[in-house]
Design brief:
By secondary structure, this protein is α+β, with helices and mostly antiparallel strands. The protein folds into two domains: 90 residues, no CATH class; 40 residues, no CATH class. It is 32% helix and 14% strand. The strands form three sheets. It has a two-stranded parallel sheet. Strands 2-3 form a two-stranded antiparallel sheet. A hairpin with a 4-residue loop joins strand 2 and strand 3. Helix 3 crosses helix 4. The chain is elongated. One of its GO terms (biological process) is methylation. GO terms for molecular function: methyltransferase activity; nucleic acid binding.
């Protein structure tokens, strides 16, 4: 299905969750691509983006080096590739969003999911300072003036 820039797919997430009979989600927001693909790093002479084998719980680097096409074909046929994540929305960013705007977007997602009987149990993101500030607002852990939520007319509902 074709995605429209900046359009949220709340109805599709409900359908996506039905086979697993689960209505709890964790929202991860990241500025990187979510397209599953296998790449090649010429400097390492290694194929990347396969799930690296774990030894003692630690992923092993450069595990997919070969100059043999049959070996590469075997990896594609035998290695279980991870399923891509469900993409709720995709948009382009000019990196000028303020923490409060990010926080409000998360609240929008939270409330829209709740309207579909989907419970968001958390949000995660990369270490961009605006996102970290939004997380602080959301967690209320560092929020010195809780009244700001009242001032901004923001209501939080906890499970």
């Amino acid at each position: 299905m074709r995605m429209t820039d900046s359009e949220f797919r709340f109805q599709l997430i409900k359908e996506y969750l039905k086979p697993n009979k689960c209505n709890y989600v964790f929202i991860a927001e990241d500025a990187t691509s979510s397209i599953c693909r296998i790449g090649y790093d010429a400097t390492l002479n290694s194929f990347i983006d396969f799930s690296a084998p774990l030894i003692g719980g630690v992923p092993q680097p450069n595990s997919f080096q070969t100059e043999n096409f049959e070996q590469l074909e075997l990896w594609f046929n035998e290695i279980v590739l991870s399923d891509p994540p469900f993409i709720l929305a995709a948009d382009r960013s000019n990196n000028r969003a303020k923490a409060i705007e990010i926080f409000k977007r998360w609240l929008f997602i939270y409330h829209q999911c709740l309207a579909q009987d989907i419970h968001v149990i958390g949000f995660s993101t990369d270490a961009d300072a605006r996102f970290l500030r939004a997380m602080r607002l959301c967690s209320r852990f560092f929020l010195q003036h809780y009244q700001i939520l009242t001032y901004l007319n923001i209501k939080l509902y906890f499970i």
